[in-house]
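Morning, I've got a small favour to ask if you have a moment. I owe you a coffee for this, so here goes:
>
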Amino acid sequence: MDLVTHLAEFAGALRAAGTRVAMGDEADALAALVRVDLGDPDEVRWALRCALKIRPRDVEAFEMLFARMWRGAGRSPSAAGAPPAPAADHGPGRPRGRGGWQLPGLHETDAETSAPDGHEPGASGTALFRKKSFEVCDDRDLAAMEPVLARMADNLATRRSRRLRPTHGRGAADLRRSLRRSLATGGELLSFARRARPIETAKLVFLCDTSGSMEMHTRFILAFARALRRVAKGTEVFAFNTELVRVTPWLAGPQERVLARLAEAVPDWSGGTRIGECLTTFVAEHLDERVDSRTVVIVFSDGLDRGEPEVLAAALRRIQARARRVIWLNPLLSDPRYEPTARGMAAALPYVDRFAPAHDLDTLERIIPELTV
């Protein structure tokens, strides 16, 4: 087990014990650990207590879990007020300290690869929360994720089209256009016409389920949509539960303010859901204006529909016929036991081009290549 995984499991155990540990705190803890002697239990313990911001009322739970998950066989924690003693130099990649203590589960190669050189996954603070489920994230986690989402969105802006288009700059020679152009100069080929792959501008429409079963995930998908909208200016965002609402004009500003505005403006926020009826409204009122052959429509929902499945299927059939692609993101797919047997989800699948999970940053990043033409 590497250092990142071990730290993530420790933070999860603290949360299960009632201790507040945010994703940003985990990133701080990783940065602290790679700067202390991993072979010294006191240094590790104090680094974790400081970086994870352990409150006095949570010290007992922290000490108990540290003794169980981080200590080797046998040394009890030092007194709570005792400062860590200076650590001896054991050389790179040798996490042994006083009394022969060794970080449980951390091999010498793990200690080496955890060095903060900026290239290895274990050295990056974001590695801690790329696979962290949105279900266990809080507002501080969302704030820490926003810069990562912005960098992910930048990848969308720099993707080039698979199709070659005429260009006045550098590119591959276009012999057909070059020969056609030479007719104007008596058949003499004075210059080559050229083609290149332009940067593709994505055209996206998000349809986000804001019902109660999706509440913990929706705020992260809205943050994802906001990040993409910065580079794909024409991105449209709709929220639905029992009614459909276009929320694109309300996405500007700090995330917490956006969520507060949406909770007030969207009817039945965190309530029930009628996916089929809402998508039927989208087809009737927005499909012709917002969707064309270049548009990728992203539906974010767990597919738990209280309406009739035939209505959902008919609406999605219309959307798929007009859009370039329909992608359905379902957070329940993170569970390997999940099967799309709910009536709504089963009715939708024949009209979905890509059915994918969306429960953490990694799954969102894997979707980005599919959002361009």
